[in-house]
Amino acid sequence: MTTIPYKSYLEPQGKYTGLLDWLTSTDHKRIGLMYMYAIGIFFIIGVLLGLLMRIELFKPGETIMGPQTYNGIFTVHGVIMIFMVVIPGLSAVFGNLFMPIQIGAKDVAFPKLNLLSWYIFMAGAILAVLSQFTGNGPPDTGWTFYAPYSTQTGTNVLMAVTAAFVLGFSSILTGLNFIVTIHRMRAPGMTWFKMPLFPWALYSTAWIQLLATPIVGITLLMLIAERVFKIGFFDPALGGDPILFQHLFWIYSHPAVYVMILPAMGVITEIIPTFCQRRIFGYKAIALSSIAIAGVGYLVWGHHMYTSGMSFTARWIFSFLTFIVAVPSAIKVFNWVATMYKGSIALKTPFLYALAFIFLFMIGGLTGLSLGSLATDVYVHDTAYVVAHFHYIIFGGMGFAFFAALHYWFPKMYGKMYNQKIADIAWLILFFGFNMLYFPQFVLGLQGLPRRYYDYMPQFETGEVLSTIGGFVLFIGIIMMITNLIIAARNGPQAPDNPWGGKTLEWTIPSPPPMENFDTPPVVSKEPYDYE
Amino acid sequence: MSDVAIKHDEHRDDLGAKLGMWLFIFTELLLFGGLFLVYAVYRDIYAEDFHLGALQLNVTLGTLNTVVLLISSMTVAMSITAIQRGNKKLSMQLVLLTVLLACVFLVNKYFEWGAKFEHDLYPGSDLVLQFKRGSIIFFGLYFFMTGLHMFHVVIGMVVLMVMWFKLKNTTINKDDNVLLENGGLYWHLVDLIWIFLFPLLYLVT
Ligand SMILES: [Cu+2]
Questions:
Q1: Which residues of chain B neighbour A222 with C-beta distances below 8 Å?
Q2: Minimal C-alpha gap between A68 and chain B (Å)
Q3: What angle do CA A275, A404, A469 make, to 5 degrees?
């Protein structure tokens, strides 16, 4: 605990007071928190929509809504969760909060641009939410906006697509900011290979954001042009080709999965050495595997389109590359496990979340490989199996990593400590509920349950009921976790500067950090995980 | 903005600023790159229709606009050299000249598009919808690509006008002119994209 009085970033700073003091602040930590509050609200909305779907599927036949409403709800759930929660999630929240501190900088390279990115994000988010309530009903295309249906349906696709475009622009600007920050603002002595692995993961992520997002940007613009000006890029009647839309869409949207998961892996890589008090095993392998994932991940999009009409050669090449991209992910998993070996492990909440991440990510990753092989995919394509795989990666992976990061850095962010016992119980409920919600869907998918239907055959009822109950258990876990953290942020006990015994730079400064992060610019001479 | 935030902004890193601009230009090129990909696919499928479509375009106006943009790229580059040598007045005049040339480009484009509309050659018109599929796509691409480029010209003009005001109140000066360099880079990008569009649309006959 510091004895010298200082002004933390949470205290009012200058000209304005209250909300305006935050809304005009270019401080990276404040912007990170502003992202977190916004994303937290969107997450809850997305969760509630998901619960509505689960209630509908509790019994066969129409339970609480008809097919059109159901189509709208799964689209809205997807758009909110993908574009507003998981893509910006870790990099915009924890990247903003801690990347500059971890590399020993006072802020990001372009603080004003950083604030602008937040406003653009909020503008896109408001558009996305508005698209649900205006026009002729919520979009019903699924978050993938597949043409030609998306160019023809009378629902409010136009606004939702515009929202996705705006959100993408914000994502590009954040990526650009992070790349320049990491190139130009590392503390003296911090060479590339002395940089912690979370910034490494963010660096790879930022390149994907930069390289892939413009492609979906232009694709969405073409979709808008097709709807408004009847330029037939994708409509066969106007000379276009709907498969082209799928290619362009997945050229972005597969790498987008890595925008979600790479920072998640970065978080886990920070947590494991801290709670094992052990130097990370295979530092360079982990750093470079992030780059490898970013590189190869750009070339596998075709695995979403095995059944859409592609040459056999194209299909086996995409399948082959999909298997290749699993290798660097596996390298990380092996390195995490090797780091734990002979470590003095402290089973604290962040570490429990990290363990859950590894477990769920493994299931998600390996089922991804069975989807990536040609023959199996044709069998389970567009079934609940895909839904289960996807949620194991995105929620089990990115989501649990987000919770891990939240519990890991919470004492630093607020200078307060949460009730660890309640946090552990919430973790257990979350983990149990998650598996109960999504695991049955693997089985249902293999039995032939198609996804995106509001109704199902009676033989799937057992699995669907289990899944719905799991959904509610998961929801209870989420509420418990969030309540615990809110109570702690308000009146939790004072947290020490370094509660977990971490070695990276953010643990050398007071909790909560002062406005300028460091009193004197740090000079780095050691490796980031210097435990032995 | 709070006092502390202003202190943050004091941090100056010209190389970093230029790196950021180059990355942004890269994303812009990728944005158009997606369109070039679509163009390549459809040109491969409908080679003959693209040939016939290109014959309908006004090569003279296109060439004129290419020359105008190339000169404007030169004037904006000269304005950077001028301010680096401390000649504020010349630099401001050259930026203004660049904006003027951009206006010439837009006026030309107005006449070119106007003529197309007069002949009912626009996406979704009854005439175009009777064409073969390849021609429909060609005119769709023509309007979409040149339209998006025009949008970038307008943004570029706004950027240049901002530069002009910043030169005027000496925010951009002899010692600190990375902003103007970045603005110039953006204008070169606008120019570069046109250099791609011109042969792809006008000269593929
Ligand atoms: Cu994929």
A1: 35, 38, 144
A2: 30
A3: 130
Q: How far is CA B104 from CA A268, A354, B69, B97, B186, in A?
A: 56, 60, 9, 10, 18
Q: Which amino acid is at A151?
A: T
Amino acid at A323: F
Q: What is d(CA A73, CA A495) in angstroms, rounded to the nearest whole number?
A: 41
pLDDT tens across B76-105, in order?
999 999 999 999 999 999 999 999 999 999
CB pairs under 8 A between A and B: 132
Is position A532 within any domain?
no
pLDDT digits (tens, 9 = 90+) for A290-329: 889 988 988 999 999 999 888 999 999 999 999 999 999 9
Q: What is the pLDDT of residues B18-70, one digit of tens each?
A: 999 999 999 999 999 999 999 999 999 898 888 888 888 888 999 999 999 99
DSSP string, A317-380: HHHHHHHHHHHHHHHHHHHHHHHHTT------HHHHHHHHHHHHHHHHHHHHHHHHSHHHHHHH
- Is the Cα torsion angle B195, B197, B198, B199 positive or negative in sign? positive
Inter-chain residue contact B16 with A232, CB threshold 8 Å: no
Q: From chain A, pick out residues whose CB is under 8 angstroms from the CB of B129.
A: 238
Residue at A2 is within a domain: no
Q: How many structural domains does chain A have?
A: 1
Q: How far is B54 from chain A (nearest CA, A)?
A: 17
Kindly write down the DSSP assignment for every residue of chain B, as one continuous string.
Answer: --HHHHHHHH---HHHHHHHHHHHHHHHHHHHHHHHHHHHHHHHHTHHHHHHHHHTS-HHHHHHHHHHHHHHHHHHHHHHHHHHTT-HHHHHHHHHHHHHHHHHHHHHHHHHHHHHHHTT-STT-HHHHTS-HHHHHHHHHHHHHHHHHHHHHHHHHHHHHHHHHHHHTTSS-SS--HHHHHHHHHHHHHHHHHHHHHHHHHS--
A277 within 8 A of A344, measured Cβ to Cβ: yes
Mean pLDDT for chain A overall: 92
B13/A215 CB distance under 8 A: no
Full residue range of the structural domain in which residue A34 is found: 26-508
Residue B11 pLDDT: 65
Q: What is the model's pTM?
A: 0.92
Mutation target for A interface from B6, B7, B23: give the one with most A CBs within 10 A: B23
d(CA B25, CA A515): 32
CA of A303 to the centre of ligand 1 (A): 6
Overall CATH class of domain B15-202: mainly alpha
Quick check: B11 and A13 CB within 8 A?
no
A264 touches chain B (CB under 8 A): no
Of the listed ranges A82-96, A334-348, A478-492, A512-526, the one predicted with least confidence = A512-526
B31·A217 Cβ contact <8 A: yes
- Give the H or E element holding residue A400: helix A400-414
Contact with chain B for residue A235, Cβ under 8 A: no
Q: How far is the CA of A299 from the centre of ligand 1 (A)?
A: 10
Q: Residue B10: pLDDT band by 50, 70, 90 thresholds? A: low
- The residue ranges of every structural domain in chain B are 15-202
Indicate whether A478 belongs to any domain. yes
Per-position DSSP letters for A31-83, written without gaps between them: HHHHHHHHHHHHHHHHHHHHHHHHHHTTSSS-SS--HHHHHHHHHHHHHIIII
To the nearest whole Å, the CA of B170 is away from the closest chain A CA by 21
Which ipTM value was assigned to this complex?
A: 0.89
Cross-chain residue pair A180–B16, CB shorter than 8 Å: yes
CATH number at residue A118: 1.20.210.10
CA distance B90 to chain A (A): 30
Question: Could you tell me if residue A4 is inside a domain?
Answer: no
Nearest to A239 among B4, B7, B136 (CB): B136
